[in-house]
Design brief:
The complex is a heterodimer of chains A (about 200) and B (about 800).
Chain A (H helix, E strand, L loop, with lengths): L1 H6 L3 E2 L6 E2 L2 H12 L10 E6 L2 E6 L6 H8 L18 E4 L2 E4 L12 E3 L1 H6 L3 H8 L9 H14 L5 H7 L10 H17 L2
Parallel strand pairs in A: 3-7
Antiparallel strand pairs in A: 1-2, 3-4, 5-6, 5-7
Helix pairs in contact in A: 5-8
Chain B lengths: L41 H5 L15 E7 L5 E7 L1 H5 L3 E6 L39 E2 L5 E8 L2 H9 L2 E6 L6 H4 L15 E2 L5 E4 L2 H7 L2 E9 L11 E7 L2 E6 L4 H12 L6 E4 L16 H17 L3 E4 L13 E10 L5 E11 L8 H6 L4 E9 L14 H18 L3 H8 L1 E2 L2 E2 H10 L7 H13 L1 H4 L13 E10 L7 E8 L5 E4 L9 H13 L6 E3 L18 H25 L10 E4 L2 E4 L6 E3 H5 L17 E8 L16 E10 L6 E11 L6 H20 L31 E6 L16 H18 L5 E2 L3 H7 L4
Parallel strand pairs in B: 1-13, 9-30, 11-12, 15-16, 21-22, 28-29
Antiparallel strand pairs in B: 1-5, 2-4, 2-6, 3-5, 7-16, 8-16, 9-14, 10-11, 10-13, 14-15, 17-18, 19-27, 20-21, 20-26, 23-24, 24-25, 27-28
Helix pairs in contact in B: 6-7, 9-10, 9-18, 14-15, 17-18
The chains are: A alpha+beta (about 200), B alpha+beta (about 800).
């Protein structure tokens, strides 16, 4: 299982064997304590922030960001639906923009700030409750992709019109046809955010 | 007493079987029918925590894939897997000529050849159903080789490294071509491509007599092309052997069937298989095809590969692979209809030619639903080189297609309002509505006119009286032509379904529903909890269901055929009633001088009816009633757990089983047609469904607007397109196969009518399939109303509109 080992590794100081949780701490330690050059970043390593947490990850060049977050990190809220950038179910927010994680190579994400549905839910974003209340879901498979897209919209435009919502979510497919409920949920969440609830 | 109408219901055998007559509730509704009940799957789904089969990963898991035929009809003439076997990371390969699979078909003979088997529905068209064969009868057929590897990419790469020589064979795609004398015969040993099916001739009355009685004979031809269900979650299964025991995580709406079939194929007892059914990313019946390659076949191959490698195996299809074997059927139909000037239809003769036939010829709704006395439906079923169809929301498509086109053509030819024609012909089995009224009286139903109620509500919502106009006469200020149309039908398919479940009161007073059930998105579990809460007298929040953890032996009716709630609602209701009785018997021992009947349960409190101040929490009553305890306890009481079983009916046999359909539905659509581009814009849809009783109104509405999007996709844009020269499907992805998005449809209004005349619990009917199945054909009369030309070829794409207008 070479992939599992390569994803998350601890950082061991080559001089004193002290263990660090991330490369940055190891680098500071090596320069300060041992007055040595910092060890070079290994090929295939990316540093990303996911839901506010820093990660240093070894990735294969062919991995998509979807594979990384869904298969390797177990953040399974991003879903594989259309298989090729047509449905929006794998949407995550990268540096403030909603993007399709299935169409993005993980290795190109070095330095990125990523938000997934898990982070949005953990922050108790009002979209979550509003989606449940308004039944803006049936099978639920595409739901995280819609909520992530809606969150990116509200970050950009805290008071969207119904038309702007429809436009923003038009790249997300829902086979159950829950479409009419989304605007209701998003407008309610926007109102709650506006009131600072 | 006069013999009860309409049948003698010989098949009612036990208390578990379905009921004839109105369901008069014995409880006060608190949760049932209430808006704002929090759906119990809601937070999991919204927060991304809900796990689906595709999300399941196990330690050491391998990934498996199977080779698919790239040709419409071909045979493997040489196969060399050595390069694939040598690929780093490939752990096991199964070839079609390996002894485990050689010549072995998909199975399903449990109940005889007509049930849960590959010979059901569209699959009946294919001469062989091998798990892994060497001959392809359609493009995309799994055959030749299955491979398991360390990751998905390696498995995919290994399939590419197989050296294979194909012998391509002549194929035919179109059903009308297939029945011509010079067409290549597809089935070995057959004389033609015409397939036998007992339902290809259905006759009631005398159509020739009916035509003689008519003032007008109307004839037309219509065509339905293939569309796909294309569910959100891609097919997969995860299998792990634990010694002789096998564990699997299925993507299916019928987990119990999967277990049954796999046990039979592998020759192991069912009690050695544990099935998990996580959340299911859509299904609509599509993952209810237990005996086909993409369910049973996949499960079998995953089990064999897992056995071979000693590791868990996840078997996967990609999106393009879902385009084969999951479509609806295709039909070309010739209609001859006789009608009187007042709109009374005297005879209907339908002649169909089907491909990938779903065993529903198209005349059944005219039998179940109208007073038309003379009906004849003759069908030819042709074998073609296309993957078999499957019943997906739903097999009633031919029936709705025929009913809508017949009624709307008749109205147009006679210059009548289609609503008038519907009301004039409403009835059942050739008899008029007075027959239904008598049935309602005999069986305790309210005497409400469901169709009229649905129509009145819908007319008002769409402003029919002001908007309906003669065809091709209303040009809007934006230059487009305005069209409006109406159709109707009955609520079907509340007649089948069997399930079992238990209701248990845990020793803290909380209530568990114990059973396995697949959640495909119709919010079933919330409704079961609502029913159990009301029947037991407990708070909704005190009830929970954890069905996919529990391969407990209790298996609820799968969410098929719009029979989910009508079956399982009865199951959990009966179990809750039994558990309530047990609770009251135990409670009677804890109060002084009371009998069980002196007690009542409300808001999770048990109290004496005559003196409500004498009360105890359920927890206080059941604290010692538990299935087990450790050795330090001094005594326990019998656990409160009750199970029930229920069969809601026999498939499709509404009349034979004594339950004519009493609930109706009406649908209205408004469109604008751009006569320069041929573009059709749907500006409003109004759906009115008499669901008898809505347990969860939001869920009912969800099915109504969800069905509208699916139905309009089928009407406007969803079509499988093959290359005629090569027989290969051209649009096998979701960019080129177009569903409706949020921008594609104007407002959808959903109106729920509740007459209580359904045959399900509390008078409910099924709702899951109706709208998506009825809406597609409704676009035809709407376009006719807009441009004055019939386009009876579905989907109605802009090129067809321009052709009809003489512009292309």
């Amino acid at each position: 299982m070479k992939e599992e080992q390569s994803v998350l590794s601890k950082y061991l100081c080559p001089y004193c064997s002290e263990v660090f949780l991330d490369r940055e701490s190891l680098k500071t330690h090596v320069i300060k304590q041992h007055r040595s050059e910092a060890p070079p970043s290994p090929e295939g390593m990316i540093r990303v922030t996911i839901n506010g947490e820093p990660y240093e990850l070894m990735v294969e060049p062919e991995w998509t960001l979807y594979q990384l977050i869904h298969d390797k990190l177990g953040l399974t809220g991003a879903k594989m639906f259309c298989d090729r950038g047509a449905c929006g179910s794998c949407t995550i927010i990268m540096n403030g923009r909603p993007i399709l994680s299935c169409m993005t190579l993980a290795i190109e994400c070095d330095g990125a700030n990523i938000e997934t549905i898990e982070g949005i839910a953990a922050s108790k974003h009002p979209l979550i409750d509003a989606y449940v209340k308004h039944h803006a879901m049936q099978c639920g498979y595409c739901t995280p992709g819609f909520i992530v897209t809606a969150k990116a919209l509200l970050d950009e435009n805290p008071n969207p019109t119904e038309e702007q919502i429809r436009e923003a979510l038009s790249g997300n497919l829902c086979r159950c046809g829950t479409y009419p409920q989304h605007a209701k949920a998003i407008l309610e969440a926007a109102e709650k955010l506006g009131k600072g609830d | 007493m006069a013999k009860k109408m309409p049948g003698d219901y010989e098949r009612i055998q036990t208390e578990g079987m379905y009921r004839i007559g109105a369901d008069v509730p014995t409880i006060v509704y608190r949760e049932i029918g209430k808006r704002g009940v929090k759906r119990i799957d809601g937070y999991e789904k919204a927060s991304g925590k809900a796990l689906y089969t595709r999300d399941i990963q196990l330690p050491g898991m391998l990934y498996a894939r199977v080779l698919k035929s790239p040709y419409a009809r071909a045979k493997i003439s040489r196969l060399d897997t050595s390069r694939a076997e040598a690929l780093d990371g490939v752990r096991a390969i199964i070839r079609y000529d390996d002894p485990e699979v050689k010549g072995r078909p998909l199975n399903g003979s449990y109940f005889g050849p007509e049930w849960v088997c590959p010979d059901l529905a569209g699959w009946a068209l294919k001469p062989v159903h091998l798990v892994l064969g060497d001959e392809a009868w359609y493009e995309g057929q799994p055959l030749g080789v299955a491979v398991a590897a360390d990751d998905e990419e390696t498995a995919t790469e290994a399939l590419k490294l197989i050296d294979i020589e194909w012998e391509q064979l002549p194929f035919v795609l179109d059903q009308e071509e297939a029945i011509k004398p010079d067409a290549p015969v597809l089935r070995p040993g057959a004389e033609s491509n015409i397939l036998e099916d007992p339902r290809t001739r259905i006759e009631k009355g005398d159509v020739e007599k009916g035509f003689q009685e008519a003032d007008k004979i109307i004839e037309f031809k219509a065509k339905r092309r293939a569309h796909l269900w294309a569910g959100a979650e891609l097919p997969s299964v995860v299998v792990r052997w634990r010694g002789d025991n096998l564990e699997m995580w299925v993507h299916s709406q019928q987990p119990y069937h999967q277990k049954m079939l796999l046990a039979e194929w592998l020759g192991i007892p069912m009690n050695k298989i544990t099935v998990h059914v996580p959340y299911q990313g859509c299904s609509f019946g599509g993952r209810g095809n237990p005996a086909n390659n993409s369910e049973n076949g996949m499960n079998i191959l995953a089990s064999l590969l897992s056995k071979k490698t000693g590791r868990p195996v996840k078997f996967l299809y990609d999106r393009s692979e879902t385009f084969f074997g999951e479509s609806g059927d295709m039909m070309v139909s010739h209609f001859k209809v006789g009608a009187k000037n007042d709109g009374t239809i005297t005879a209907v003769h339908i002649k169909n030619v089907f491909a990938v036939y779903m065993c529903t010829p198209g005349i059944e709704h005219l039998i179940d639903n109208t007073k038309i006395p003379n009906l004849l439906c003759e069908s030819i079923v042709a074998d073609v080189s296309i993957a078999p169809a499957w019943w997906c929301r739903c097999e009633q498509l031919p029936n709705c297609f025929c009913l809508t086109l017949i009624f709307d053509h008749v109205a147009a030819e006679l210059g009548l309002d289609p609503i008038e024609v519907a009301l004039r012909n409403d009835g059942c089995d050739g008899k008029d509505t007075s027959y239904l009224a008598e049935y309602k009286r005999q069986h305790g139903f309210p005497e409400r006119d469901s169709l009229r109620e649905c129509i009145e509500a819908g007319k008002k919502a769409i402003d029919w009286d002001n908007k309906w106009h003669p065809p091709g006469t209303k040009r809007l200020p934006n230059g487009k032509m305005h069209g409006i149309a109406f159709t109707w039908d009955h609520q079907w398919d509340d007649v089948r379904g069997t399930g079992s479940a238990a209701v248990m009161i845990e020793n803290d007073g909380s209530v568990s529903i114990i059973a396995q059930h697949a959640d495909i998105g119709v919010n079933p579990w919330t409704t079961y909890c609502q029913i159990v809460a009301d029947e037991l007298g407990v708070r909704f929040d005190d009830v929970n269901i954890k069905p996919f953890e529990l391969d407990s032996g209790f298996a609820m009716m799968s969410p098929d055929g719009s029979c989910n709630l009508v079956s399982n609602g009865n199951v959990v209701r009966k179990a809750a009633q039994k558990a309530r009785r047990m609770l009251l018997e135990l409670a009677a021992t804890k109060f002084e001088d009371v009998k069980p009947d002196d007690l009542e349960v409300k808001d999770s409190m048990v109290f004496v009816k005559e003196s409500p101040e004498k009360k105890m929490t359920i927890k206080e009553i059941v604290a010692k009633a538990m299935p087990m305890f450790d050795s330090c306890v001094f005594w326990t009481e019998a656990p409160i757990v009750a199970w029930a079983w229920h069969t809601q009916g026999l498939w499709g046999e509404a009349l034979e089983t004594g339950r004519p359909r009493l609930c109706r539905q009406a649908h209205f659509i408004e469109i604008e047609v751009d006569t320069d581009t041929g573009q059709i814009e749907v500006t409003k849809v109004v759906n009115v469904n008499d669901v008898g009783k809505a347990i969860s109104p939001e869920t009912v509405e969800g099915q109504m607007y969800g069905g509208t999007y699916m139905g309009l996709g089928r009407a406007l844009t969803e079509e499988l397109i093959w290359d005629k020269k090569t027989g290969v499907l051209l649009n096998r992805n979701l960019l080129d196969y177009k569903y409706a998005t949020m921008l594609d449809v104007g407002p959808i209004e959903t109106i729920i009518v509740e007459t209580g005349m359904g045959h399900g619990p509390y008078g409910t009917t099924g709702i899951g399939e109706d709208t998506a199945t009825i809406i597609p054909a409704l676009l035809g009369p709407a376009v006719y109303n807009a441009i004055g030309k019939w386009i009876d070829d579905f989907p109605i794409t802009p090129d067809k509109v321009l052709k009809a207008l003489g512009k292309a």
